[in-house]
Amino acid sequence: MRDITAKISSLRIATAQAILTVSPETILMIRENRVPKGDPLAVAKVAAVQGAKNTPQFIPYCHPVPLDFVGIEFELSDHQIKITATTKAIYKTGVEMEALTAASVAALNLYDMLKMVDEQMSIDSIRLLEKEGGKGDFKQPFASQLKAAVIVISDTVAAGKKTDRSGRFIVERLENEGLTVPHYRIVPDEPEAIQAAVREATQQELVDLVITTGGTGVSPRDQTPEALADLFERRLPGVEEAVRSYGQVRTPYAMLSRCMAGTIGKSIVLCLPGSTGGVQDSLDALFPAVLHTYKMLWGGGHDQPKTLVSSAASGEQDA
Q: Does the model's pTM come out above 0.70?
């Protein structure tokens, strides 16, 4: 099985279809309720629901998924029975195999109940029609337009006593998401140094995204939230909640984080923990969905991103 620990639960929907070819006489028998074994559609529907719920029993590498809905529809033509199966779940992995299993089981049950009256039947196709949900649906096609800055806030790293790992991890992750990262700095846990670095990134470098790492805990030198509170024009509390909520189910220490998020002009600023594990969890929680914010920041709506231009690309920034 694949490790889906880092994935976020989201609404997953899949629709699959199976087609059973039968004789016109068989279709007529179904319509007139003359099939010797009883109503094949009713039995096939129940069997399909059971099949969807037990998919991991048949497909070994499938994760057990808490299905919220299984819908089965039948469409009868002169010589075909078209079976459409729809599955839904709010979970970390998709439900296409559940939909395909449901459609397959329905077709097999129809075959079993009708074989005594139609020896020429055939299951002609089983295919996935569509699926929704998951990380792919939140990918932003304009990510390559975005410039980012990574600022490491640490007394020991700034003094050369420790090697930065978290900042480099962020750089690599952002580049994997398609962003360019031309700005990388290390500053000590001093409010003035933190503010200066963020101002330089947002007002001079004109980056779209600033991610700081470090200084969000409760030690005497953790001063990042206080340093940046006055710089934020608008807070993004939902982003902060997402980071803590994601981390809390993985380690109880996440409750101690004072991570922050907000906007400065047309730049998003994310203040993440200093530990590599905390950074990884935070990025898993936020990306790529957090990039949706730029559609609004650049003056567009939820459904019109492609012609928008980032502040970095245009060279413009709000005063």
A: yes
